[in-house]
Amino acid sequence: MSVLVYVENIEGKFKKSTFEVVSYAKEVANKLGTDLTAISIGQVDAAALAELGKFGAGKVLNVNNDQLKSFVNQAYASIIADTAKSIGAKIVILGNTFTGKGLAPRVAVKLDAGLADGVLELPQIDGGKLSVKKGAFSGKAFATVTLTSDIKVITVNANSYKVVENGSAAPVEDFQPQASDSDFRTIVKEIVRATDKISLPDAELVVSAGRGLKGPENWGMIEDLANLLGAATACSKPVSDAGWRPHSEHVGQTGIAVSPNLYIAIGISGAIQHLAGVSSSKVIVVINKDPEAPFFKVADYGIVGDLFEIVPELEKLV
Amino acid sequence: MKILVCISNVPDTTTKVTFTNNNSEFNTAGVQYILNPYDEIALARAIELTEGGKGTTTVINVGLADTEPTVRKALAIGADDAIRINAAPKDSYSVAKQIAEVAKAGSYDMILCGRESIDYNGAQVAAMLGEMLDIPSVSIIKKLDTDGTTATIEREIEGGKEVITTPLPFIEGVAEPKIPNMRGIMSARTKPLQVVEPVAAEPMAVYGNYEMPAPRGNVKMISADEPAKLIEALHTEAKVI
Ligand SMILES: Cc1cc2nc3c(=O)[nH]c(=O)nc-3n(C[C@H](O)[C@H](O)[C@H](O)COP(=O)(O)OP(=O)(O)OC[C@H]3O[C@@H](n4cnc5c(N)ncnc54)[C@H](O)[C@@H]3O)c2cc1C
Ligand SMILES: Nc1ncnc2c1ncn2[C@@H]1O[C@H](COP(=O)(O)O)[C@@H](O)[C@H]1O
Q1: Environment class of residue A244 by beta-carbon count within 10 Å: exposed (0-12), middle (13-18) or buried (19+)?
Q2: In chain B, where are the structural domains located?
Q3: pLDDT-based confidence at A311, cuts 50/70/90?
Q4: Which of A197, A203, A199 is CA-nearest to residue A259?
Q5: Helix extents (H) in chain A
Q6: pLDDT, tens only, B91-149
Q7: Which of helix, strand or coil describes residue A152?
């Protein structure tokens, strides 16, 4: 019996959310009184792999060959599931990232395992039962999911568990599992990534703006404020529908759900569909000229006033 | 080209969510149900790819008779026909299992799902179906084109996008935000809606013990003339910057 964690890299690098997931998995392994094995797929350098030991990995399996350089959902899922079987893992843990969302359901079916996605806390484990809290109804509530299958799969939301560093370097083993040709039916042709931007789903600080900005030409001040704070930028749905901002920045029920430490909403009314994507933010600041804007009801700090005056002032202050 | 679109029936986006039975069940009293907004996006793309004699779009729902208005809505939007599998959806695994049975028999060229359902937000069904049918699955896609044998897909990734190709058939979760036009409203009532009985499928996950988010403390209002107070509060009180 052991716990397996998939450590996702992005262009060869581990991000903070990966360390969160390893720290989480280590705590789950402790609860079971067992050890934690990490599996990395793709090209990551040996030192970075060994460092995962600091966050609790007892051993790191390194799977790397040309075919696996870019993410191939099916092949990665086969490798993770086969590895789980061969080490006798009872719990398999992944990050609830774009990649994790594609992988975890396939891994779960391969292992006849129940899947709890986007979990927010450590699980309660009681004999063969595992119960864990997750968001439901698009941020309006929480639910406890109970899995009773022999093997269980969990995906952990970004920013919901803190990075714990108290181990030392872990041994890294090269590992060559078998993937079949039929696992490589999808082919990655091109990857386009804006590397200078902070990625929205796991950003700790987010500056977001809505229709109150009046037009795309005014976004410079939102980006400036975000840069000064080291924050990601986001927007409301009508803003991306109008093409003022890319759809990848649209947060809410039909966009991305975020849970940063700080969410600054500028010129956004706070419609229920928008709140669905942001209500689990730790601290919410609202800047709106309308004192009746619904967003103030869920805010921690609010300023009633003209954003075109307030935002430039804030920029001078941070 | 034959496309199958999986549709779920979810509480309207403005629903005030409450629970009953000691917070163990969602309170459906007075709740208005709608076609999952993401599924509407997937359906719109399927119709574009099949309309004008290029193929057929079938919608499928796992649900009891009370979901029929949602299924009819999908027909009104432009699906050619519909299948309802007569079972209460319990979890993603059992839903995927039901759909997989029907999909196996139907030899579809592609199966589209929404990015996620807005009630349990699992984003699980599409990839589970892919695994059950042993065909590729692609999650969170923004763009989809096909020449009839291969599909070219833009997928959302951390901080950008990825362009991939996959042979047909395949499955995906669509998120391309696009509001579909309503079509064919008149004919929806006469389009075929087939009801099939479920196969045995035990759920793997059980939901219960619902909680509402803790209410936030009262909002602290700061005068527009004193933005420095906001920055100070974020530094020293909230300690987030
Ligand atoms: C099925 C469905 C799904 C949806 N999904 C989403 C979603 O995922 N995300 C989302 O965001 N929306 C979503 N919506 C839309 C949502 O209902 C709202 O229409 C939208 O969030 C409003 O965007 P907004 O706040 O930018 O614009 P508005 O509601 O127009 O608000 C603009 C705000 O700016 C303020 N303002 C104007 N000028 C100034 C100024 N000079 N200084 C300060 N403040 C100013 C105004 O007082 C107002 O409060 C969805 C709707 C539906 C029906
Ligand atoms: N009961 C259902 N019947 C048919 N399709 C469903 C059902 N539930 C979910 N789906 C499909 O699976 C997608 C993802 O749902 P979920 O995994 O629940 O987030 C939805 O957008 C639908 O396309």
Answers
A1: buried
A2: 2-208
A3: very high
A4: A203
A5: 16-32, 46-51, 73-87, 98-110, 220-229, 237-241, 272-275, 307-317
A6: 999 999 999 999 999 989 999 999 889 888 888 999 999 999 999 999 888 889 999 99
A7: strand
Q: Tell me B106's DSSP state.
A: H
Quick count: other Cβ atoms within 10 Å of Cβ A33?
A: 7
Place of tokens 């966009």: A255
| Ligand 2 atom with the shortest distance to the CA of B5 | 23
| CA–CA min distance A176, chain B (Å) | 22
**Residue numbers of chain B with a pLDDT score lower than 50:** none
Contact at CB, A101 and B224, closer than 8 angstroms: no
Check: complex ipTM more than 0.95: no
Joined tokens for residue A307: 């954003």
CB A240 within 8 A of CB A255: yes
CATH number of the structural domain B2-208 = 3.40.50.620
For residue A312, say if its preceding peptide bond is cis, omega within 30 degrees of 0. Answer: no
Contacts of B156 in chain A (CB under 8 A): 98, 248
**Of the partner residues A102, A149, A280, the one whose CB lies closest to the CB of residue B127:** A102
Q: Does B98 touch chain A (CB under 8 A)?
A: no
- List ligand 2's pocket residues with C-beta within 6 A: B 6-8, 36, 38-39, 60-63, 89, 92, 95, 113-114, 116-117, 120-126
Q: With contact defined as beta carbons under 8 Å apart, do A212 and A218 qualify?
A: no
Distance CA(A179)–CA(A174), nearest Å, equals 15
Lowest-pLDDT choice from A63-77, A79-93, A141-155, B226-240? A63-77
Residue of B219, B220, B226 to mutate, testing the A interface (most A Cβ within 10 Å of its Cβ): B219
- Please name the residue whose Cα sits nearest to atom 30 of ligand 1: A211
Q: Which of B164, B165, B211, B212 to mutate to test the interface with A (most CBs of A within 10 A)?
A: B164
| Structural domains in chain A, sorted by start | 2-184 (3.40.50.620), 205-317 (3.40.50.1220)
- Asked whether A149 and A38 are in contact (CB, 8 A), the reply is no
Give the mean model confidence (pLDDT) for residues A261-287: 94
Ligand 1 atom with least separation from CA of A254: 8
